[in-house]
Write a structure and sequence with these properties.
By secondary structure, the protein is α/β, with parallel strands linked by helices. The chain has 3 domains: 91 residues, Conserved hypothetical protein from pyrococcus furiosus pfu- 392566-001, ParB domain (Alpha-Beta Complex), CATH 3.90.1530.30; 81 residues, no CATH class; 74 residues, no CATH class.
Length: 336
């Protein structure tokens, strides 16, 4: 007879080093997580490793008020480990619990974890935008960031030796956007564009990350209201239109007064399509054509005058022939 499985503890058990074993079903994902999580083979490989070796590095969570799903903790650092652990059949995770974190501090944990684990240059545009947005924001604290980085690095590597990350650049006094550019190897304009990308709704950020929308058009779209951005995304989804610079600039020009019909006209290209010209295309009369009728001594003004009269006579004759033909057709119709 199989023995009963032990019931899950209702209160996390505290282990050595302040690490707690917490049921996974008590932990929720970070809301609006700004980074793409592992999928497919990469996630499977991590699950296999966890199944063989367990979760070697504890995740970081924070206490929250119990939500509608019964979750008491929110994941800050370790989303991929949690997904892989569930795939491997684990129901508990080793966790470091952070108490009394503000939303801003929690975001710093989420962002800095990803910055430490990945190269900034390998990040998707929306991920770079979130990193830069956090660093550019009023709530950013270099000292607090350094403390978080040191804590996360010690978790990953207990032998970590603290480096001085607050040393100013020698002989420089830079603005925030310039400092970010120096730190991440970007121009000031690139920093500004990425900061605008962070103003997009999640759905449009995903389109930028998937290269469906370029960076420059995305900057224009970032100036639309959230409702207008959702309208644009909905029409892109339904109709499969593409967004180029001309369309995005026109959308931005209509910001604050966009309607469904206007968005469709712009994205379909109708609004930017040139109407057919009402004047005949210009052309140059070849020399061999008019040389048959004019001598080399003929003046240009005389040639133009004669050609004009000849065309007038030609089209008058065409009109007369057309009228005669219609009159004849009417006569035969009446006879019948």
């Amino acid at each position: 007879m199989l023995s009963e499985q032990p019931s899950e503890p209702s209160v996390p058990s505290v282990q050595s080093g302040g690490i707690q074993s917490i049921p996974i079903n008590k932990i929720r994902m970070y809301k609006d997580h700004p980074f793409r999580l592992y999928e497919d083979e990469r996630l499977t490989d991590m699950a296999d490793s966890i199944q063989a070796n367990g979760v070697l590095v504890p995740v970081t969570v924070r206490n929250i008020d119990v939500d509608e799903n019964g979750c008491e903790f929110e994941m800050l650092a370790g989303h991929n480990r949690m997904n892989a652990a569930q795939m491997a059949g684990l129901d508990h995770l080793p966790c470091i619990v952070k108490d009394h974190l503000s939303d801003e501090e929690a975001l710093m944990y989420v962002v800095e974890t990803n910055v430490l684990q990945r190269s900034f240059s390998d990040m998707l545009p929306s991920e770079k935008a979130k990193v830069l947005s956090l660093r550019y924001s009023d709530m950013f604290s270099q000292g607090k960031r350094n403390d978080i980085i040191e804590e996360l690095q010690k978790l990953e590597n207990p032998q970590y030796i603290k480096e001085d990350t607050t040393s100013p650049l020698v002989g420089t006094k830079l603005r925030t956007d310039e400092k970010l550019g120096v730190e991440y190897g970007l121009s000031k304009n690139s920093v500004a564009r990425l900061l605008r990308i962070d103003h997009l709704i999640i759905e449009l950020k995903r389109r930028v990350d998937d290269a469906e929308i370029g960076i420059y058009p995305a900057v224009d779209l970032s100036y639309l209201s959230e409702a207008e951005q959702r309208l644009v995304d909905s029409i892109l989804f339904d109709q499969g239109y593409k967004v180029d610079m001309k369309k995005s600039r026109l959308l931005r020009d209509y910001s604050g007064k966009l309607t469904n019909e206007q968005v469709v006209r712009i994205l379909s290209g109708e609004a930017t399509r040139k109407p057919p010209s009402k004047t005949p295309a210009s052309f140059k009369l070849k020399h061999k054509v008019y040389a048959k009728y004019f001598s080399p001594q003929s003046k240009a003004s005389e040639v133009e005058e004669i050609i004009d009269k000849a065309l007038e006579m030609y089209f008058a004759h065409q009109r007369q022939d057309h009228q005669s033909k219609n009159t004849e057709e009417d006569y035969h119709a009446n006879e019948v």
